Amino acid sequence: MASPYHKILIITAPSGAGKTSITHNLMQHFPQLAFSVSAATRQARANERHGVDYYFLSPEEFKEKIKNKDFAEWEMVYEGKYYGTLKSELERIWANNQVPVLDIDVKGAIHVQQQYPINTLSIFIEPPSVDELRSRLESRGTETEETLAARINKASYEISFKTHFDEVIVNDNLDRACADARELVQNFLAAEVFQGKKAD
């Protein structure tokens, strides 16, 4: 079971803000961190493995776990597409004496900090501007005009929640943003008890 001394690191951001790059950098520098594998109802891509990239569940399986209160957080991120963090995944990482790293949606991040108010550090990665975010998403070449517009609208909404998190890092330079994140995480891991600002 979770104890007050079990730590959680949350990295959250709008899509395209650089969250995944910063998370990977932290994982390389701190062996005590372990990536928390999320559950998802989408289909696995060709290079993805169940239990490594995601726990791939059917919508029915996912809803059953919601009913059983198996999730620390879950969201329907896009219509019919569910993502969530299983409590069993956090327990698995804590059992290895490691700190789970949650790379999750903004709403899910707020929900986790409400459930685990002690010893949870939440970092919001903010893009330099919405225009810069649009350019980054366009450069991926994976978005239609419609999906791009949806992501930009969602990003603008998510940025409005940045004050709910312990720390905000503006990613206008990836090396500097990674260095800032490493300093925050170093201090967090060294602290016996951490109490951040937390969500209202």
What labels describe this entry?
about 200 residues; alpha/beta; Rossmann fold; 5-stranded parallel β-sheet; 4-stranded mixed β-sheet; 7 helices; 9 strands
Q: What's the structural blueprint in terms of helices and strands?
A:
Layout: E1 8-12, H1 19-29, E2 33-35, E3 39-40, E4 55-56, H2 59-67, E5 71-78, E6 81-86, H3 87-95, E7 99-104, H4 106-115, E8 120-126, H5 130-140, H6 145-159, E9 167-170, H7 174-190
Parallel strand pairs: 1-7, 1-8, 2-7, 3-4, 8-9
Antiparallel strand pairs: 3-6, 5-6
Any overview of this molecule?
The protein is of the alpha/beta class. The protein has a domain at 8-36 and 97-190: P-loop containing nucleotide triphosphate hydrolases (Rossmann fold). 41% of the residues lie in helices and 22% in strands. It is built from 7 helices and 9 strands. It has helices spanning 19-29, 59-67, 87-95, 106-115, 130-140, 145-159, 174-190, and strands at 8-12, 33-35, 39-40, 55-56, 71-78, 81-86, 99-104, 120-126, 167-170. Strands 2-7-1-8-9 form a 5-stranded parallel beta sheet, with helices on both faces. A 4-stranded mixed beta sheet has the order 4-3-6-5. Strand 5 and strand 6 (81-86) form a beta hairpin. Helix 1 crosses helix 7 and helix 5 packs antiparallel against helix 6. The chain is globular. 35% of the residues are buried. The model has no long low-confidence stretch (mean pLDDT 90).
Unreliable sequence segments: none
User: Structural class, from secondary structure content?
Assistant: alpha/beta
CATH topology descriptor of the domain at 8-36 and 97-190: Rossmann fold
Number of helix segments? Answer: 7
CATH top level assignment of the domain at 8-36 and 97-190: Alpha Beta
How does CATH name the architecture of the domain at 8-36 and 97-190? 3-Layer(aba) Sandwich
Largest sheet: 5 strands, parallel
Order of helices and strands: EHEEEHEEHEHEHHEH
According to DSSP, the number of beta strands is 9
Report the average pLDDT across residues. 90
Helix content class: 40-55%
State the separation between the terminal residues, measured CA to CA: 25 Å
